[in-house]
Amino acid sequence: MINNKKIILPKGFKANGLSCGLKKSGKPDLALIYSLIPALASAKFTTSSIIAAPLIVCKAHLRSAKKFQAVLVNSANANCFTGKAGIKDAQACVDYLAGELKINKNSVLVNSTGIIGKRLDVAKIKQAIPQLVAGLSDTGIHKAETAIMTTDTFAKEISLSLKVEGKLVNICGIAKGAGMIAPNMATMLCFILTDAVITQAALNKALASAVDKSFNCISVDGCMSTNDTVLVLANAAAGNKVISAGADFENFAKALEFVCLGLAKMVVADAEGATKFIQIDVCQAKNMQEAKSIALGIANSMLFKTAVFGENPNFGRVAAAVGASGFNIKEEQLKIKLGSLKGKQVKLTVSLSRGKSKCTVYTSDLTPEYIRINAEYN
Asked: Lower CB density within 10 Å: C or N end of the chain?
């Protein structure tokens, strides 16, 4: 497995991004990812009961079609809490793009991120789509990743290559997210592209495992969004022997997990107002569920997060979070080791003395800057 220093689009993919005027700043706000070859798709979405209109459209297309060629993404507007009109707006963008690309509209997936509760300006998006399509290129992923950003301070990207039966297979991922980050699909958008030849079942299994070990193991503020999406497209352009099981599947799954975890860590590193990146290791738990629940309980403790910001080694904040987890942890079982709080990287190890299971969760400190950013977000 080779971690590419420079992000590389897998074979058969093109991308672009530009400004269509949704952002008052004039910064890029519309992105397009396109596969020349119809691709398999697998996705994970927010577990919130309030979901954005584009997710409703995406889910419908994933049920009705087997192959996909385009992903249209806008920032600045979440197109959520907009009722039936929001669904019509999302579908109108999809239909218009499909016409420009001359592809089946059900092969187009759509995502949005930004302010909740405002109608999407479909006219601006339609007006920009011809230029967006005309500008598609092998190097356009950089423009696309910039266009999906909201409060992000840097673009999040990663790509790697691996050999499958002598054939080079590429995986590339981009993501956005800095605030409203909570487990159960986190709060972000992530798009992963691969030219691997893989079965639908294997792709679904690999993504589910990768998401569970990465995006579902991060938290910034404990707030879940309405638009969370992790989407992977596999267009088979690498020409490798089909991945279905065995060593080839295990290697692909590890590579996909590497991409997801790398992007998830970048989201935490870019947390709104954060000054510390915190790794929480809970070990010697009875089972994985116990380890993960306790780790996330600590990660979502406002008292713990503010203590880390203040560089105050208050072990009581950790003990209190463990005690409130709902598991019957006895005082004599609990061991807490907190590393130095002076640097940007902080490590906390919690041993429960109850078993052999462990889980690692990533979070950030909570600062006055986080409050300022979200007080002004509208």
From this structure: C
Give the three-class secondary structure for 129: helix
Amino acid sitting at position 201 = A
Catalytic residue, candidates 187, 194, 229, 367: 187
Strand-pairing partners, residue 232, are 42, 192
User: For residues 244 and 202, is the Cβ–Cβ distance under 8 A?
Assistant: yes
Strands (E), 75-179: 108-112, 156-164, 167-176
Distances from the Cα of 368 to the Cα of 140, 274, 365, 373, 374, angstroms: 36, 9, 10, 9, 10
CB 221 within 8 A of CB 370: yes
Q: Give the per-residue pLDDT at 185.
A: 53
Question: Does residue 79 come out as left (phi exceeding 0), alpha (psi in the -120 to 50 range) or beta?
Answer: left
pLDDT digits (tens, 9 = 90+) for 57-104: 999 999 999 999 999 999 999 999 999 999 999 999 999 999 999 999
Position 219 confidence tier, pLDDT thresholds 50, 70, 90: confident
Return d(Cα 58, Cα 213) in angstroms, integer.
Answer: 24
What does the DSSP 8-state code read for residue 212?
H
Burial class (CB in 10 A: 0-12, 13-18, 19+), 42: buried
Q: Report, as an integer, the average pLDDT of 47-54.
A: 91
pLDDT tens digits, 224-271: 778 889 999 999 999 999 999 999 999 999 999 999 999 999 999 998
Bridge-partner residues for 259, per DSSP?
none
Residue 4, pLDDT above cutoff 80: no
Statement: the pTM of the whole predicted model exceeds 0.90: yes
Tell me how far apart the alpha carbons of residues 12 and 194 are, in angstroms, rounded to a whole number: 9
Say whether 187 is catalytic: yes
* Euclidean distance between CA atoms 243 and 13, whole angstroms: 20
For the chain, give the number of residues. 378
Alpha-carbon distance of 317 to 21, in angstroms, equals 45
Q: In the structure encoding, which two tokens stand for residue 194, read together?
A: 């691969």
Tell me the domains of the chain and their CATH numbers.
2-269 (3.60.70.12), 277-376 (3.10.20.340)
